[in-house]
Design a protein that fits this description.
The chain has 403 residues and is of the alpha/beta class. It is 42% helix and 18% strand. It has 13 helices and 12 strands. The strands form 3 sheets. Strands 1-2-4-3-5-11 form a 6-stranded mixed β-sheet. It is elongated, with a radius of gyration of 24 Å. The mean pLDDT is 96.
Length: 403
């Protein structure tokens, strides 16, 4: 790292920059929270976030890859490129029950704080990228952006997610969505039932087979689904029925095993009812692979800012769902810490929605912005090349890549 005096100056600048912007950042968060928008429809959030970044001196590319995606940069090529990620889509009916308004606030706050540090170091030190990624809630916006090479040239990617507890290395499960369609033959259910082949029966048998399969699932595997089509009238044997399932496991390798077991349930139900079965894989999220070297830097800065991490393994190590940030972690060294917004309410609940918009969520969100900014700036400091090399080496070894 550069001299202690240089680092202390930058640290003070980062903290002061976030603190002096607290009112603006809260306004942005409240505006997003008060106007929840579903996946791929986050036009208002896109507008206010990009306008703020323009005002703060970033080069902003709006409608980046996706209509509601954006990329904002400050600095120069040739040095370290630190990417901070924003999410801002809401959930149907219950609004920001995953606190994406706070993720956006944290990402913007970290971005302007890293910029403040770069203004001291000089743009030649590198670049900060604030990436706006739509549709985390089931749309896989980051997957689309990865396919379009949005993360090429990025050295590390970071974001922080509100939660009922602090966990720097949370377990996010890999997930595969699957749509299952059974096709039979319609007939009058009272007059000529023997002429029909009941697609709904096939769907019910499939549902039951998957439920029975749970006895042989590992404790941290998850399969959950709903009926999306069960026929049109009771007196017509259903010729089509549909199910929609999420399959989850701790790693991609385990998920592939689980998928094969579910496919067996689908085939068995079709054969038992003389129906045809088709399936279509929908959005796929990979597990989050936390880069140990990068998260260690974050943990140091978060703790120095007063954060106390959860130590109870049953809470700290429990699976907390799935995210397309997992896919990012497979293409660039990444971290996705969780932070406590001063509530015991679970995410994806109406209670969590209320707390995500409460004043009590502000202090922890701003603290996370500071911690992410300090993490990124430590990599940007002159003399810290070895830190990034170690992070990249770990990433390459994890995924079997060679330089």
């Amino acid at each position: 790292m550069g001299s202690a005096a240089d680092w202390n100056c930058i640290r003070e600048k980062v903290i002061a920059r976030v603190d002096s912007s607290a009112e603006d950042l809260n306004k942005i968060s409240q505006e997003i929270w008060s106007n929840p928008e579903l996946k791929f429809e986050e036009h208002h959030a896109h507008k206010i976030l990009t306008e703020y970044l323009v005002k703060e001196g970033f080069k902003v590319e709006g409608n980046f890859i996706l209509d509601t995606g954006f990329r904002a940069t400050y600095g120069s090529d040739g040095g370290v490129n630190v990417c901070v990620i924003c999410e801002y889509d809401a959930l149907p009916n219950i609004g920001h029950a995953c606190g994406h308004n706070l993720i956006a606030e944290c990402g913007i706050g970290a971005g302007i704080a890293i910029k403040a540090g770069l203004e001291i170091l000089g743009e030649q030190a590198g670049k900060v990228t604030v990436m706006g990624t739509p549709a985390e809630e089931g749309g896989g916006g980051k997957n689309v952006m990865i396919d379009a090479k949005a993360f090429e040239g990025v050295d590390v990617a970071m974001m922080a997610h509100g939660c009922p507890f602090y966990a720097p290395r949370p377990k996010f499960l890999a997930i595969q969505q699957i749509k299952i369609t059974f096709t039979g033959k319609s007939a009058h259910a009272a007059a000529f039932p023997w002429e029909g082949r009941n697609a709904l029966d096939a769907a019910v048998m499939c549902y039951q087979a998957i439920s029975v399969l749970r006895q042989q699932m590992k404790p941290d595997w998850r399969v959950h689904g709903i009926f999306t089509n069960g026929g049109v009238k009771p007196n017509i044997i259903p010729e089509e029925a549909e199910l929609f399932y999420y399959m989850r496991a701790p790693t991609k390798v385990e998920l592939d095993v689980l998928i094969q077991k579910v496919l067996g349930c689908i085939d068995g139900a079709a054969k038992a009812t003389s129906c045809e079965a088709k399936h279509k894989f929908e959005v796929n999220y990979l597990d989050v692979v936390t880069n140990k070297g990068l998260i260690s830097i974050y943990e140091k800065h978060a703790q120095n800012l007063g954060v106390t991490f959860e130590t109870n393994p049953s809470i700290r190590d429990a699976a907390v769902g799935s995210t397309d940030m997992g896919n990012v972690s497979y293409v660039v060294p990444s971290i996705h810490p969780l932070f406590d917004i001063n509530t015991d309410a679970p995410i994806h609940s109406r209670e969590f929605t209320a707390y995500a918009g409460a004043p009590t969520a502000q202090e922890p969100t701003l603290t996370q912005a500071k911690a992410l900014a300090l993490t990124g700036l430590e990599l940007l400091m002159p003399g810290n090349k070895q830190l990034l090399e170690d992070i990249r080496k770990e990433f390459d070894e994890t995924f079997g890549k060679s330089k």
